[in-house]
Amino acid sequence: MALLEIDNLVASIGETDVLRGLSLRVDASEVHAIMGPNGAGKSTLAKIIAGHPDYTVKSGDIRLDGESLLEKSPDERAAQGIFLGFQDPVEIPGVNNLYFLRTALNAQRRRRGEAEVDAPSFLRLAKEEAARVGLDAGLIKRSLNDGFSGGERKRNEMLQLSVLQPKLAILDEIDSGLDIDALASVAENAGRLRAAGMSFLLVTHYNRLLDAFPPDIVHVLVGGRIVHSGGATLAKELEASGYQAWSQAEPGLGAGSHHALHA
Amino acid sequence: MTPMNQLHAQREDLAEAPSRLNWPSKKQEAWRRSPISSLKERFALASQRESPIVSLHEHPPWVSEAWVGQALQATPSNTETPASQVGALRLLWLGSNPLVVERLQGADSGVEITRVVAAPLASQERPQSVTASLAALHARERLHMRVAPGCALAAPVELLVTGASAEEPSSGTHFVCEVGAGASVTLVERYVGGVAEARSMLIEFRLGAGAQVEHVRESSPAEGGYLLSEVEVSVGAGAVYNSTLFAREGRYQRHDIALNLQGEAAKADFASVVVADGESQAEVHVKLQASAPQTHSTMSHRTVVKDRGDVGFTGTVAVKGSAPGAEAHQSAKAILLNEGAVAFAKPELFIETDEVVCSHGASVGALDAAARFYLMSRGLEEAVAEGLLIRACLLEPLTGRTSPAARWLAALVETELGGDADDAAR
Amino acid sequence: MQTEVITDALARAYAPGFISDIEADSLEPGLSEDTVRFISAKKGEPEWLLAWRLKAYRLWQRMTPPDWAALEIPSIDYQSISYFSAPRKKDGPKSLEEVDPELLRVYEKLGVPLHERARLAGVAVDAVFDSVSVVTTFREQLAEYGVVFCPISEAVHSHPELVQRYLGSVVPQADNYFAALNCAVFSDGSFVYIPKGVRCPMELSTYFRINALNTGQFERTLIVAEEGAYVSYLEGCTAPMRDENQLHAAVVELVAHTDAQIKYSTVQNWYPGDAEGRGGIYNFVTKRGICAGDRAKISWTQVETGSAVTWKYPSCILKGADSVGEFYSVAISHHRQQADTGTKMVHIGPGSRSTIVSKGISAGHGRQTYRGLVRMEPSARGASNFTQCDSLLIGSNCAANTVPYIESRQPSASVGHEATTTRIRADQLFYLQQRGLNTEDAVALIVNGFCKEVLAELPMEFAVEAQKLLGVSLEGAVG
User: Does the CB of C450 have a partner CB in chain A at under 8 Å?
Assistant: First the structure.
């Protein structure tokens, strides 16, 4: 049983279908990258896995550890082990960054029937992880993402990832707005978490992140389907050739080739 | 009974009308700067005259040619209006009588002007404010201007209002402008009081879908003059109403402006600039109501008060439950230059739906001391520095306005402040 | 710890809504000069106070209820209200041991620390039940410092000169309709006197509880801080759930002399009525303080989550030079609740300063109005004010109004007002849910963040209670 299994997922927003029969499997400790042209549905896929209320799943299934997520609320999915690193994390004025993180951690732990983390242990953990992701000590005391630069927000997402320790981290364009040093730090932390058993689904446009944090499998998402999957070298090919080859792809090709890869 | 006689009869009937109007109580006027009911006497109807109705192209008999000429030349050259520069339509209102003074080629097509001489009060179907009732009552005729759908009037229409003579101590103006779908027009409204009179004005705008109106207003009552002015605007879907008011002088002036954003994505920008000195009192009350989705509005008020001047502002933004997606911004700033000067501000928000972006800010105080020091440390004399800051404050809401009419008004403000009008006009 | 606070807050119902079975002496409903005389006689008041009450009553008869607030209130039948209800007892309790144990259990349920816990918390408590003050703790300890903290009915006898001098000196009898009514029929309340140079060694606190049916509560609080004195005073309010509306018309007067400081905090959780708007307290309160001396400071902090209707404007008259007035407010209107609340800052003294921070939250069909006056008198040279006024809307049926009045007659005085209107955005909720918070927790977190500046002004014990209340008050507001 794979960690994440998506079967033939069809999803829509309003009247528009945004995923049209998408299938995907991610095993423990695997790193998958989703690439594709603008508007292909990459960020949409990330939000649908996390349970964003704007989208309706019309058919198909998403399972984590064999259990369907479709009827679950976003917070239940989070407690089960889904983490979405947002492309544009929202600002929430007045809500202290660390206080929020501890509230979230303990809410998840409570739901899982685990003991809550007390304040001193949490503070130690948070400071340690903040240092790892290179977040300034002053920033972690501020309001949630309030007045953070783009890079600081992304580092803050990484801090939350390291503290919350999900099974699957979906990182949506985590590399945008990051300078070289920050990118290296993100890759290093992701590598460490992966070694400890975390799986990753990276949504990205560029190879910058993939060079530093090589994926096991690269998927090409076009028109709401995965049309092609391959190894890490696929990302390089895509950079050179673009997505033209798949823009007229036959239905079913993606799912077929993908299953073949996992067979 | 001929229609004319009928009208005479009605006017006889209305001789006592101002005192019978529904004047607001002292309580209703609680926060206004000058209780309007104390002005009752001043706004009494002028004594009955012969032949109150005149043809559109004739002067009333008690107004001499010379007087018209004088009124037209009364404006100093540096306040030449856009209309006089580019030669558009000019409507002159002497006392309570409308006349079309210049009707220019090119402006004819698509513009229709009618006089409505029906009894002013009989036509009222809805309850009106005292200002509106007074204006409708005093005005001997109502001018009704229609701009045909799709007609884009390149040159501004000028509405020049002035007191007729000391024999007519109170007078009224009633002007209705209907702008058809997709049409655009600039109206330059000037009230330049010729005599100390009590004037009431009612101006109504109805903007069809996608219409655009630029409404530029100068309000300068004569020394000792009183003005009660009301503007009612309804803005249709996708239509845009921009308005700038510059008020100064006179003993007392009150401007009530109702902006109704009735169509989806309707837009209104309102700015008022008020300079009060001597014993002048001025108040501006703007009430904006958004009742359709996705509307946008800004409201700015700037004032500089000196001597024993007294300026009040109420800006009300009401977003109804039927107006999700509204964006409304409001700002009010008042600068008091000396002790004895008074400023009141009441920027209100009434929000009935959660899908809004609304903000307002208000400040009242002296000139910014830090800014003044900064300018002086760069070598400016104190008076120059202060002048610069006052100008910056007053002209701030006008900086985004690029139309010739708005630039003209900005130049007028500059002149009032003793600055170089050319700078602002550029 | 704060997580627990919010979680606890999600207990579903209006927790203080129980009705206590306590024997009470109640006056038959009705209001006349005889009612006023009865109350005065019951308290054994001196002649001057009876005369004062009667004058107020006669003034009240000629007045009309204020109608300018953005509130819809059915007309109130003042003859159907009982103007006096007291828990039955022989004589006033001399100590806690003599207090009706059932009454103590009521306060226990409310979490009011009357016993040992009070000592641990370092809070002296005056508890007002319906119309009378039932117990005041820590009086001996306070007396050592010369601090007087007692029921006002007692102060009339023990400190007549102080009461006579200050009663009505800040809120005169004819100030407004509800204040006049209070002057005529007030039954009890707290009296605090801090002598010159004394810093009150503990927080003083009054818990108000309306219990009896058809009873109005008209308490009167008077706090006087002499030169250089300091006091922090807390006020908490609850009432049982009843289908009928109940009237609460209180008056609070604060007097701060030269260099004195008074900090007055309120957590108002009167019964708000049910989701359909049945029942609930009508809360018509006049609170005003005067900074009589130079550099005096008065700070109002309020968390208003209860009451069906709130009409309340805690104000400061800044008479002393360089005196300071502050107003920090959080007000919630959920379901059918209505609140018209704000402040008045009247600047008279040169260099006087004031700060207003108001956070209004509307949910359901709630209606919320901030109404505030800032006035700079000609004498207020160099005075300044800053006002921040934010509204948070939850749902499309609620309303938020902001009505500031700014009046300046002094050019060197500066007044600044800023206001924003926002809502809880779907992306904020989703973000928090994605991190594992359920909807209610997420809303509570955002609301607490929105109110942070005001909650920070509350004394610690109250801040925790206030945070809980915010969560509870907004249950079911989203989703």
Answer: yes
Q: Which residues pair with C232 in a beta bridge?
A: C263
Domain containing A230 — which CATH number?
3.40.50.300
Q: Which of B342, B352, B361 lies at the smallest CB-CB distance from C399?
A: B352
pLDDT over 60 (residue C381):
yes
Cβ distance B360 to C401 less than 8 Å, yes or no, reads: no
In a domain, A33, yes or no: yes
The 10s digit of each residue's pLDDT in B98-134 is 776 655 545 556 788 777 765 545 444 445 788 888 8
Average pLDDT, chain A: 87
Strand partners, A33: A202, A218
Tell me how crowded residue B9 is: count the other CB atoms within 10 A of its CB: 12
pLDDT value at position A242? 81
Query: C400, B330 in Cβ contact below 8 A?
Result: no
Q: Which of A18-27, A234-243, C232-241, C408-417 has the lowest mean pLDDT?
A: C232-241
The domain total for chain A is 1
Distance CA C207, CA C218 (A): 14
* DSSP letter, residue A134: T
CB contacts of C364 in chain B (<8 Å) are none
pLDDT < 50 stretches in chain B: 1, 47-64, 67, 74-79, 83-87, 105, 120, 122-126, 420-426
Residue B92 φ/ψ, nearest 5 degrees: -110, 140
Task: Write out the residue range of the structural domain in which residue A205 sits.
Answer: 4-91+167-249
CB neighbourhood size of A150 (10 A): 13
Q: Is residue A180 part of a domain?
A: yes
Report chain C's mean pLDDT, rounded to a whole number.
Answer: 84
β-bridge pairing C309-312 and C261-269: unpaired
Which helix (H) or strand (E) covers residue B84, if one does? helix B82-86
At C247, the pLDDT band (50, 70, 90 cuts) reads confident
Q: For residues C324 and C344, what is the distance between their CA atoms, to the nearest angstrom? A: 13
Only one residue has tokens 């999700």, namely: B324
Q: Tokens at residue C39, please? A: 């109350």
Let me know if residue A150 belongs to a domain: no
Rounded Cα distance between B360 and B297, Å, is 12
In this predicted structure, the answer to whether residue C388 has a pLDDT above a threshold of 50 is yes
Helix (H) or strand (E) run with residue B172 in it: strand B170-179
Sheet with A67-68: list strands edge to edge. A16-26, A4-13, A56-64, A67-68
Contacts of B357 in chain C (CB under 8 A): 421-422
CB C321 within 8 A of CB C349: yes
* Rounded CA separation C444/C440 (Å): 6
Q: What pLDDT does residue C1 have?
A: 30
Average pLDDT over residues A110-137: 90
Taking CB atoms and an 8 Å cutoff, what residues of chain C touch A160?
A: 435
Give the contacts of A138 (CB within 8 A, at least 6 positions apart).
none
Q: Cβ separation of C419 and B351 shorter than 8 Å?
A: no
What would you measure as the largest C-alpha separation in chain B, in angstroms?
77
Query: What is the reported pLDDT for A258?
Result: 40
Question: In this structure, which amino acid lies at residue C192?
Answer: V
pLDDT given for residue C11 in this prediction: 31
Beta-strand (E) ranges in A125-255? 143-144, 168-172, 199-203, 217-222, 225-230
Q: Is residue A129 in a domain? A: no
All residues of chain A having their beta carbon less than 8 Å from the beta carbon of residue C433 are 51, 73-75, 78
pLDDT tens per residue, range C402-437 = 999 999 999 999 999 999 988 888 899 999 999 999
Task: Report domain extents, chain B.
Answer: 3-263, 368-426
**Other Cβ atoms within 10 Å of C200 Cβ, number:** 22
ipTM of the complex: 0.80
A interface test, pick of C3, C388, C427 with most A CB neighbours within 10 Å: C3
B near A: at least 3 beta-carbon pairs less than 8 Å apart: no
Measure the CA–CA gap between A40 and A57, rounded to whole angstroms: 17
